[in-house]
Specification:
By secondary structure, the protein is mainly α. α3 crosses α7.
Length: about 140
């Protein structure tokens, strides 16, 4: 096919058209599982929550967060577990080879789970701080 592209524009167009008609992009994959068939599991969800918490609360990344917080996008991103969870889910899914539809699906799942986990941690933290106050 590369030779056909180099030889002439007419033959390259014909070769490209025949190649694209042979390969149906919307056809379900046959045989071995591909990235279209990947499913998320609990380890993916725990990975997203852990990464979101490390990026948002980790003391080792405090210098990076303070440096990036001068940009309004990153300041808002690091203050919102829903937003940070979405980006963590999307970019890690893209990096792990999921197709774009599943990247968006995983991003929404990740944002919801990260927000619920963050809300739960704040809920527990509020009650434990109230218990530590001295009783009069």
């Amino acid at each position: 096919m590369l030779m056909a592209l180099l030889l002439s524009p007419m033959t390259s167009a014909v070769a490209l058209k025949s190649h694209l008609t042979k390969q149906n992009l919307f056809q379900k994959p046959q045989g071995k599982p591909t990235c279209l068939k990947k499913m998320i599991n609990w380890t993916d969800i725990l990975f997203w929550v852990g990464l979101c918490f490390i990026l948002r609360y980790g003391s080792i990344l405090q210098p990076l967060r303070s440096l990036l917080s001068h940009i309004s996008f990153f300041k808002a991103l690091f203050n919102c577990s829903l937003c940070l969870g979405w980006h963590v889910g999307f970019w890690t899914s893209l990096g792990f080879g999921f197709d774009i539809i599943n990247c968006f699906k995983n991003a929404f799942i990740s944002s919801a789970v990260c927000w619920i986990a963050d809300f739960y941690i704040m809920f527990i933290k509020t009650f434990t701080e109230n218990d530590r106050k001295p009783i009069k």
